[in-house]
Amino acid sequence: MTSSNQSDSVGSTLGSLGAMTACTLGAGIAGGVLYMAVQRMNRARAASRRLSELIAAATSAGEARIVITGATSGVGEELTRAFSQHSSVSLLLGCRNAERGQRVVEGITRRGGQARLAPLDCLDLGSVKRFAGEASAFLDGGADGLRLLLNNAGVMRAPEDASADGCDATWATNFLAPAVIAETVAANTRLRERALMLWVALRAGPLSERGTRLAATTPGMVDTQLGRHSVRPQLWPLTKPLRWLLLRSPAEGAVAACAAGLQPPEGGGPGGEGEAGWYMDGERTLEHLPTQRALSERPLAEAVCAWVGRVCGEK
């Protein structure tokens, strides 16, 4: 065999090995992606079943009245779908987009459910206060049963031109609006996350004495529209496959968001500090805010609560 033939043979062998390696690697990646996809679908189905179980147990007696903000997409949409399947539940949905909100309400009523729409623009303090008053009246009515306020609406990296009565849009949506709504309801019936936790930490005790259980919950990283401002608008749809594969499903986020309101931590949680003021991820306790935040950051917590009180008192 000549030197040229030997070189051709070696090159052919190396080429075949390279092709086999590439095929094996490709098959391994495809198998891994398929496994992750199956796991994701199984988690979503399990979360949907668990959410239905929690709702059924919590709404089995009396008339349940639930208020949900941000009800037209993501976790809020999943919460709305799950609660609306139970005949004893009446829903009040806070939505910024009235057209989309009305379609959701009409779909629920066609299926025999009970729901109505209330406009809510978290960037407009007047709208927030009007919604808070309507939510308070709604929760105060009807026969005895579960009363639950789910402050779900949120935003991440809002556009710089978004304004909220002179207040940062992310702060207004993720902290001020839910705090004002919760304070109004209770009175009658990430940077921003820290402020919300401090507010919960200081207000949980006094509100629990009046029969209101207050908790902060995290749905985790969920495949929703929350991160749509994080990339260029034209690129956002292209992220859907990765978001679907790597992030929690809306059903998982829904369980995480509302489990604390449907059942208290078992035994009051670790340490037995009681049921008020928990920071939770679904049915898993992450932190007891009154003992871990209010004590270490009390001056700041008091300042946050005082500011919310002033905002609630403004006409």
Structure description:
56% of the residues lie in helices and 12% in strands. With 315 residues, the chain is α/β, with parallel strands linked by helices. The protein has a single domain (59-313), classed as NAD(P)-binding Rossmann-like Domain (Rossmann fold, 3-Layer(aba) Sandwich), CATH 3.40.50.720. A 4-stranded parallel beta sheet has the order 3-2-1-4, sandwiched between helices. It has a 3-stranded mixed beta sheet with strand order 7-8-9, with helices on both faces. A hairpin with a 2-residue loop joins strand 8 (278-281) and strand 9. Helix 2 (74-84) crosses helix 8 (250-262) and helix 4 (125-140) runs parallel beside helix 5 (169-188). It is globular. The model is unreliable at 269-273 (pLDDT under 50).
Outline the fold blueprint:
Blueprint: H1 3-58, E1 64-69, H2 74-84, E2 89-95, H3 98-110, E3 114-119, H4 125-140, E4 147-150, E5 163-164, E6 167-168, H5 169-188, H6 191-209, E7 215-217, H7 240-246, H8 250-262, E8 278-281, E9 284-288, H9 289-292, H10 298-313
Parallel strand pairs: 1-2, 1-4, 2-3, 7-8
Antiparallel strand pairs: 5-6, 8-9
What is the structure about, briefly put?
Keywords: Membrane, Oxidoreductase, Transmembrane, Transmembrane helix. Belongs to the short-chain dehydrogenases/reductases (SDR) family. With 315 residues, this protein is of the alpha/beta class.
